[in-house]
Amino acid sequence: MATGATGQGHAQEAGxxxxxxxxxxWRVLRGGAAGAAGAAAVRxxxxxxxxxxxxxxxxxxxLPVAAIVLDRESRxxxxxxxxxxxxxALRHGEPALISLRxxxxxxxxxxxxxxxxxxxxxxxxxxxxxxxxxxFVTPVHLPATGPDADLVLITFNDLTPLHRVEAMxxxxxxxxxxxxxxxxxxxxxxxxxxxxxxxxxxxxxEKFLKIMQQxxxxxxxLIDDLLSLSRIELNAHLQPNTPVELAPIVRQVVxxxxxxxxxxxxxxxxxxxxxxxVVLGDRDELIRALENLVENALKYGAPGKRADIALVRxxxxxxxxxxxxxxxxxxxxxxxxxxxxxxxRFYRVDASDSRAQGGTGLGLALxxxxxxxxxxxxxIESTLGAGATFTMHLxxxxxxxxxxxxxxxxxxx
Length: 413
Ligand code: ADP
Prior knowledge:
alpha+beta
């Protein structure tokens, strides 16, 4: 068939051209080109090692994953920037088995070459940071060229995010079970005591029932917080769009926490501006987040005897107008080494103090997730001995910032 004959002719031409290019390539590579121009020459020479070198180089450059292409002798013909960042020692024209030092990967390249079968391998890199990868080493036969032109394609998947999520999930389950098991064990212990030795002791019954109620309340609160967190996470991608005025929320939350403030002897000062600040949001979620922060100021900042809650207009880093709810206490503050991890689930500066205060260790995680979902953020500042300031940053509604008129005709602002 005509097409077959043409294909054969191309293959032969390619074979002759290939040998000529191979000779040229080795002359350049042996010439020891140096510097940036030298590196370009080496790359060109390496891609000339193969009849489709420039095409391979372009294809690999366009791949969204880290990729390396080797020739039959395991020399590097092409690699992209992503591959370069995984294996900085990669050099065009050099043997891959020297540039890629990971033993599992080197074995997979050897096996793929020997058996002409795809190999999959997982490996772990410690430097510069802990990272997990899977690599697919695939022998590629190009029918239009001779076997000398066979290639090996190596692609990489970064498994680090998956590993981190898996570690976080395991941590989370362990933490949640531990938090539930402690009050549950206390409740079971008291039930046993009431059924046995304290069966007829009215005073003990009274005392134990009170403790059991506290522990059961703690469990209920923990489950409530866990459910809220998962609900917020499920909706994380849906930005809430109901206009919510912030000043009434601030007043409602502070009013609701006045009994706790009195109990702790904390004087709460509230300030809201004359102007109306409105955000697009979920009212209940915003109340929940603010409640957690004000409650923390009353619990942990109590020794300072004062807390200030202020609603103000500000400007985000992007230049966009935002509302800020600033919650400041004058308590002992937070040591700086704890600040970066404070919004992690179950992270506490002092776990026993938090539990004694009825805390679940989920309040700040919840507040952070609520703010993220609203396109805002939570910032924390603290000076040891001088208290802590938690700020809720929320983008103002477009109508509020005067951009509503710019929205396309017919759209609901
Ligand atoms: P918890 O239920 O323990 O209060 P949070 O997530 O609300 O959980 O807070 C996490 C930890 O952050 C608390 O256990 C506490 O150690 C610390 N923390 C939070 N707010 C303050 C504050 N205003 N002052 C000092 N420490 C605080």
